[in-house]
């Protein structure tokens, strides 16, 4: 089985101090936009790929999901998820997203939050998701925006006094692995273009329902650094249906 960066004690400790780790969905800048494009969960079977702390699994259960399966590679993430989850219809499995395997037409909804940029083979993943979904099923995911992932460092370009000048974008069409700096640690992520994210769905048996370049809500813009998030897109949100 692959190893997860999130099982590194130092990295996980840093991640646990992020707003989205401490405050849950309310601490995620993209949540208000993401919530608007989610389908109804009532009576549905749901799969969450890269479930992390389980916040979205819990949300689905709170909103009437009949059964929720959360998959994550990190044992540390899953330990927290199991501690937080009080719903018997939620189960967690440890696996890499690429290695997950389910019977055809097992789910009404497949969801993923900020995980697919860790996956090397996106087209194959889309094929698998389509096979797991029931006809007309919902596929909703968020990823880091291609503008954010293109250059690789995921940091601003600064002047000699440390003031932000702009966000660097380079090598956009050269898809593949980037070494990003996240929480002061080197993390491998995969860059792909907006065309790849969307056209793979359109040519792979999905109909696009919503595409949103998420931005932090007004009430978060007083938090340190949040106003700078309006200078370039960081999150891409996509909702599609299996045709």
TrEMBL record:
<dbReference type="Pfam" id="PF08241">
    <property type="entry name" value="Methyltransf_11"/>
</dbReference>
<dbReference type="InterPro" id="IPR029063">
    <property type="entry name" value="SAM-dependent_MTases_sf"/>
</dbReference>
<keyword id="KW-0949">S-adenosyl-L-methionine</keyword>
<feature type="domain" description="Methyltransferase type 11">
    <location>
        <begin position="47"/>
        <end position="141"/>
    </location>
</feature>
<dbReference type="GO" id="GO:0008757">
    <property type="term" value="F:S-adenosylmethionine-dependent methyltransferase activity"/>
</dbReference>
<keyword id="KW-0808">Transferase</keyword>
<protein>
    <submittedName>
        <fullName>Class I SAM-dependent methyltransferase</fullName>
    </submittedName>
</protein>
<dbReference type="GO" id="GO:0032259">
    <property type="term" value="P:methylation"/>
</dbReference>
<dbReference type="InterPro" id="IPR013216">
    <property type="entry name" value="Methyltransf_11"/>
</dbReference>
<keyword id="KW-0489">Methyltransferase</keyword>
